[in-house]
Amino acid sequence: MPLLDLGAAIALGFRYFTIIYLTGLGGLFSERSGIVNIGLEGMMIVGTVMGAWGAFEFGPIPGLLIGSGAGMLFSLVHAVATVTFRVDHIVSGVVINLVAIGLARFLSQLFFDQATQSDPGVPDLATISIPLLSSLPLGLGQAFKGMSPVVPVAFLLTIPVLFVLNRTRFGLRLKSAGENPEAARSLGVRVAPLRYAGVAISGGLSGFAGAFLAIEINGLFREGQTQGLGFIALAALILGNWSPLRLMIGSLLFGIAQAIPLRLNDAPVISLLPEEFIRMIPYVVTIIAIAGFVGRVTPPAAAGRAYEGSTT
């Protein structure tokens, strides 16, 4: 296997890491507030179609922002259902994912005159190369050349997220709403706005990740292009024990696993496997990782639990 192929695989893995990590961070904010959000996949789907349309109309940066805004607006449906009307979080998330498929088709027909995809050639961002790292030997430097500028931003986002969650009033109150909402309310903390904020952040980040997928990786909107990445982000969140740093590591693992079938299918050992098995690699890695660590994680105590005082 040429080492250049390995560098290209890592580069693609970084891009998928960005999608999984940003979506997982969205799930982190939602579940830290007490709202389980399995609708991340649906919010990503809305982000893909709106991001592609925004990039065609206004350019890649507005496209990413439009995808993020669309995901945030769509997430409010989940917030209203779970926070205000106290619908079961899993049921609401499933509905979000199903509605997103139909909504994306409707928007695609409206924007692109096709129900399942846009024309190719969505404008993307200018690529960058990371100094020093792009000069690594043995072909590894290839991983740090031609990189989307969003990728290093995703890595660096860990720092402000840690600061917000652990050092700000908003972050500490958000976590209290997910751990013990009754105690938080007794101290004068309004739980409902915090949960709305957590879900809205999850939608914004998921929509941004979906727009990134359409703009920076595929170069078009296509139905089904998320391929379960929202659920893999949830798996990374669980594997990371609802911690941003551990989530980053899990997302990197799953991102590289996503790149293997796309870039290393001709590698010596992998090429001996049937193509169907190669395409299963990301999901097999996800199952193995969750099966090995799920008993060692501790979710927010009140996540998924209906709170009778959630309207205040």
Question: Your description of this structure?
Answer:
The protein is mostly helical and 312 residues long. It has one domain. It is 67% helix and 0% strand. Helix 1 packs across helix 10 and helix 3 packs antiparallel against helix 9. The longest helix is centred in the first third of the chain and has 30 residues. The chain is globular, with a radius of gyration of 19 Å. The protein starts with a helix and ends in a 19-residue tail after the last helix.
Task: Give the topology, please.
Layout (H helix, E strand, L loop, with lengths): L2 H30 L7 H19 L1 H25 L4 H24 L37 H7 L1 H10 L1 H11 L1 H6 L4 H28 L10 H11 L4 H20 L11 H19 L19
Helix pairs in contact: 1-5, 1-9, 1-10, 1-11, 2-3, 2-4, 2-9, 2-10, 3-4, 3-9, 6-7, 7-9, 10-11, 10-12, 11-12
Number of helices: 12
Number of strands: 0
Separation, N- and C-terminal Cα atoms:
59 Å
How many whole angstroms does the radius of gyration measure?
19 Å
Number of domains: 1
